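Please, structure for the following, as tokens.
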Amino acid sequence: MRVLTFLAVLWCAAHVWAEDLVVKVTDPGGAVVAGAQVLLSRAGETRSLAVRPTTPQGVAAFHDLAPGPYRVRVLAPGFAEKDADTSAPAEIALQLEIAAMEENVFVTATRSPVPSEDSGAETAELNAGELRNLQPTDAADAIRFLPGAVVNSAGRRGGIASLFVRGGDSRYNKTIVDGVVVNDPGGTFDFGVVPMTEVDRVEFVRGAESTLYGSDAMTSVVQTWSREGTTRSPELQMGADGGTFATAHGFMSLSGARGRFDYNLFADQFNTAGQGPNDDYSNSLQGANLGAILSPRVRLRLRTRHSNSRTGVQSFWNFNGLALVPPDLDQRARQNNFLAGLDVVVSGRRSEHRFTGFEYHHTRFNVDDVVQLGRVTPAFGGFNFDSPFSLLTDINRAGFEYQGQYWERSWTQTTFGYRFEDEKGFTGDLAAPPPAHGLRLNHDVYAQQFASLGRVSLVGGVRFVHNGSFGNKAVPRAAFSLLALRGARWWSGTRLRGSYATGIKEPRLEETFATGPFEIPNPNLRSEQNRAFDAGIEQKLLGGKYIVSATYFHNLFRDQIEFATNPVTFVGQYTNVNKALAHGAELQLNARLRRRLSLQSGYTYAATQILAAPLCTLANFCDPLLAAGQSLLRRPRHSGTVLVSYSGRRWGGDVAAAGVGRRLDSDFLGLVPHVDHAAGYVRVDVGGWYALTSRVSAYVAVQNALNRHYEEAAGYPALRLNVRAGMRFRIGAE
């Protein structure tokens, strides 16, 4: 009863709140922008008076203000920052502009909205318009076109898709969906089965970011957010498409915002038969994004997603058009993923306090029931290597995080927080029990100071980690950005930037808690580490319409984990022994060619080398490609991306290309001759939509438009030219 009385008082209080200054924020098309950060200060002063987020209606309200002139600054992810002078009392409307990439506001780089050029980090993004144009079926088909990203998919749709950044391992990327970490403990993550339905924005930050994000953020952070409801009347969107390889796809969402509440409920179903034997794939998704304003200073948001996928697994079989071994006809992979995050945000006059509870449950089965004839290799003495197995990964991550933000001045802010996480799960072969069971209780505290004054921006922070496996570790980071030359119209500003950071990655559960007759657990494993620095220069041209940047990066990976086997007993355990180097350069060009036409492109040169691999010997049955002196597998020296995007009122379209050079790879089967590389390739995707009416639009997505034969992972042929076309309908809303 007391709870109901309390809520009733809050509801009635809404009608008597004093609102001396009301700021409404919209995008270039006139749609409201929810979740923008609005900072208020007195005109001519730098001391912040208050910070407010915009509501689902795009409004930020400040009350109990003295009359006089004020300065308003608006920071919204995906847009350029906006400054305006006003007075109180008043009601003003501010329209944000879409800017070149380096002027966009990002959240991931500093955990709060900051212009990219001030963050001291290398960033890239896909906004809602670009995602709508591309129509990606999964996260891998989106992030592969971001500068600095190299995606390797084991086969076609539904195949395991890994991300390699700056020469790092595929387990060196922190992945966050709707505020919830979705990596396995130890960094493993499959981008190939993550539906992109209702994803509103993707942010990608390159470099070691463990100071803000803890374990696994060794070379990058990838973060996505679901769309929030903003229309006063309910909006129902639904659609379907079909295409080559018996592909069928349908989706639906119901969203809106009324008073203090906003909502978005959505679902998606995708099915395809694939282009070869045992190549079918299906994925279903259900999700919700619900928000409520409990009081002028207290907001609540609940986000949840559940997906269930089933994939045929051909395994290694076809290399450069040659069927070296028969495809696996009965192996199947299944995943069931559930995430939920509840945020309560309390706003002070110059501070914000975010309390988050989260849970992620991930189950993955890989099953092969039948011994298939003909799958033989010399490494097994000519005998069949196809054997039954039932591999299980059952992971649960749950915990609590507090994050505080404090704005003393308009040019400085402090971020600090505490995170507790319970990691537990089972991994292993159910056909050879028992599976390994692991439990970790982790505690992190962190703090970061950001300052941007005049030409200089500085970022400094540290995180102290107490991990249930490897113990205590301090992780620092420092970065700077300096506007060296202001320039004029043609040469419109030269900026220098650099950073130094350390990254850490905890062992996987199966590495620490290994069980079985041939594996010994190793509770003394240390974290894998990265000592990273980068330095770069950025040049704006023609008033900032074109931005060219060049960055040198250097990563030294230490204490990498390898499995050591006794050649007599065949019993072994995981241990920290390996060491590797990755360094190179990134070139990036971003341009606003027209008001609605943009270009995002990048080129990466990455030289990698294994510095130490003492366990890689013939006695340990090690592939020679993994020995000291070799380049790291599946890391190309040359890679690049181009994304040209147009987002208009009646139509939009993207042309995207990703090019990857020759790189070392392996069949891991001991074939003769041995497969030791994957050839370079260029993949081009085209997508677009056209509004037939204000409520009906048609769209098309063409992947591998040049119909190239290529393999991202050696022995796993990628999908040839494939087309999907469909219709989208919108009912309701204003």
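The CA atoms of residues 54 and 60 lie 4 Å apart. Residues 1-18 have pLDDT under 50 and may be disordered.
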